[in-house]
């Protein structure tokens, strides 16, 4: 509007001058009235000019007032605290947000140094406008300090340069950052594995606990599928877990098996929860995994001990009932062999075989009692090769009928061990019979004896088959009493065998997987006399 008015004034003024000359010439000519009329015309032009200047001044005054009001409203309604100061740091103006932030009234701040509310800040204008943000400590009237973000810029007011300091209270943000840092520290220092993953099972985060439990570093795990740690035979478990999370459900204390980087299988307890975005949609899963391998082993050992204790009570009664007929058979056989001189050679040989097996039956009963009741064994030097050969004499014919080929590799220089031969024979027979049962269509059983590596005068017995192998979920339970996968099994053979080997101071290792057979490795100490 001011420019249009000024333009109109210039045009109108020009026309006025031209027209006034024409009118003066027409009305007064060169007569005496021309002078007064010219003066009147001039005064009219001055009056018009004065009126125009008044209108322009009024317009500018209203515009400045409106701009000032707008700027004051903006200044007061700003979400940041604004402090305007001279270049020497003396405060000249503050807004309401700054009053509330620092706890001072406006009149208490004006004229004070900016150091009063922003200690150590001073006036430090940035080299570039985008470098002006810095974290400082603000100081309230009551002396408390709080974190702020400070941005300073130069402004020109009334021809004089001022400094405008915009202050943001970031206390809540700082507390959030501290909480996040604490949470990250807790996650990182946790002994449990804490892992986040997408709904497709891709690993997003991996803490130190996960590295310790599974053996993979964060660099090796992040970005790969969580299936990395799941045994192949239970891989469908992952789909079930992720589907549960997609349904926005939680999984708590789910115990399962996982595979470490070194191939060792461990028992873990999983707690899995959905991860939601800001809109509440499930976008991933958070998983906490705890290694419970040791706890599960202790629980199984406790159950095994309880079962064996019950079995001991039962066996005591059974042994009493069996020992009587065994004693009668043994005495009658002794009488027939030693009391009668005219026994035919063929019959004598059969009777001697019967006597040996009756003695073996008695030894088995005594071994059973010793195994389940942990009664002292009658230890003596034992040739493990002889135990193998005697066992194969008992089962060899039946194995041949069942299309089982037995291959032996016996160390002729094997040192003797100290133990009870009938008990050791029972262990070997259990392993061979189990191998046969695992191969109904026939197969190969390999039996080896050798010196134990790294163990002075120790021996090693290996029994391996070419059967289907033991499933991963069954393998940890094969030493549990009464646990069996056979339709006609009792579940006592392997538990008793394990116990017998422990009684001899040895240990049993099993190497098995579906499709590659099963190998039992028994290590026994050498012949050391009992103390």
Can you describe this structure?
By secondary structure, the chain is of the alpha+beta class. The protein folds into five domains: 2-75; 78-174, PAS domain (Beta-Lactamase, 2-Layer Sandwich); 190-291, Beta-Lactamase (2-Layer Sandwich); 313-375; 380-531, Histidine kinase-like ATPase, C-terminal domain (Heat Shock Protein 90, 2-Layer Sandwich). It is 46% helix and 23% strand. The chain contains 13 helices and 17 strands. It has helices at residues 2-27, 34-77, 96-102, 106-109, 171-189, 208-214, 218-221, 236-246, 293-338, 345-373, 384-401, 421-438, 493-503, and strands at 81-85, 91-94, 133-139, 145-157, 160-169, 193-198, 203-206, 251-259, 265-276, 282-291, 380-382, 404-410, 417-419, 443-451, 459-465, 507-512, 518-524. A five-stranded antiparallel β-sheet has the order 2-1-5-4-3. A five-stranded antiparallel β-sheet has the order 7-6-10-9-8, with helices on both faces. The radius of gyration is 50 Å and the shape is rod-shaped. The model is unreliable at 126-131 (pLDDT under 50).
């Amino acid at each position: 509007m001011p420019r249009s008015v000024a333009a109109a004034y210039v045009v109108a003024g020009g026309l006025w001058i031209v027209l006034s000359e024409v009118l003066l010439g027409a009305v007064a000519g060169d007569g005496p009235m021309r002078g007064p009329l010219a003066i009147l015309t001039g005064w009219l032009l001055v009056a018009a000019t004065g009126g125009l200047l008044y209108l322009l001044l009024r317009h500018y005054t209203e515009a400045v007032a409106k701009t000032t009001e707008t700027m004051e409203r903006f200044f007061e309604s700003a979400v940041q605290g604004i402090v305007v100061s001279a270049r020497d740091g003396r405060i000249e103006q503050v807004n309401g947000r700054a009053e509330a932030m620092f706890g001072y009234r406006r009149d208490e701040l004006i004229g004070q140094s900016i150091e009063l509310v922003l200690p150590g800040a001073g006036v430090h204008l940035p080299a570039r406008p985008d470098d002006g943000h810095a974290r400082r400590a603000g100081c309230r009237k009551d002396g408390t300090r709080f974190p702020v973000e400070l941005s300073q810029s130069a402004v020109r007011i009334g021809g004089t340069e001022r400094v405008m300091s915009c202050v943001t209270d970031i206390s809540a943000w700082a507390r959030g950052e501290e909480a996040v840092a604490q949470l990250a520290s807790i996650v990182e220092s946790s002994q449990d594995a804490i892992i986040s993953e997408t709904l497709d099972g891709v690993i997003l985060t991996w803490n130190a606990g996960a590295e310790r439990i599974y053996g993979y570093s964060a660099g090796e795990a992040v970005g790969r599928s969580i299936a990395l740690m799941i045994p192949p035979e239970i891989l469908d478990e992952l789909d079930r877990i992720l589907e549960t999370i997609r349904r926005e459900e939680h999984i708590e204390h789910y115990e399962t098996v996982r595979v470490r980087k070194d191939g060792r299988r461990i028992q873990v307890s999983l707690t899995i929860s959905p991860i939601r975005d800001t809109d509440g949609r499930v976008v991933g899963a958070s998983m906490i995994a705890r290694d419970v391998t040791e706890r599960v082993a202790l629980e199984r050992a406790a159950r095994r001990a309880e079962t064996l204790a019950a079995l001991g009570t039962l066996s005591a009664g059974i042994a009493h009932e069996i020992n009587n007929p065994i004693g009668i058979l043994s005495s009658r056989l002794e009488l027939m062999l030693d009391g009668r001189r005219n026994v035919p050679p063929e019959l004598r040989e059969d009777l001697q075989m019967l006597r040996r097996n009756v003695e073996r039956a008695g030894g088995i009963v005594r071994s059973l009692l010793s195994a389940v009741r942990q009664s002292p064994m009658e230890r003596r030097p034992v040739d493990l090769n002889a135990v193998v050969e005697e066992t194969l004499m008992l089962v060899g014919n039946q194995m041949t009928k069942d299309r089982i080929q037995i291959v032996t590799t016996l160390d002729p220089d094997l040192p003797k061990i100290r133990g009870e031969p009938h008990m050791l024979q029972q262990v070997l027979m259990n392993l061979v019979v189990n191998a046969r049962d695992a191969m109904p269509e026939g197969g190969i059983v390999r039996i080896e004896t050798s010196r134990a590596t790294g163990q002075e005068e120790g021996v090693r017995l290996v029994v391996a088959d070419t059967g289907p192998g033991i499933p991963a979920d069954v393998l940890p339970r094969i030493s549990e009493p009464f646990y069996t996968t056979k339709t006609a099994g009792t579940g006592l053979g392997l538990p008793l065998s394990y116990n017998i080997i422990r009684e001899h101071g040895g240990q049993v290792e099993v190497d098995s997987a579906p499709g590659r057979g099963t190998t039992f490795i028994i290590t026994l100490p050498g012949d050391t006399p009992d103390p």
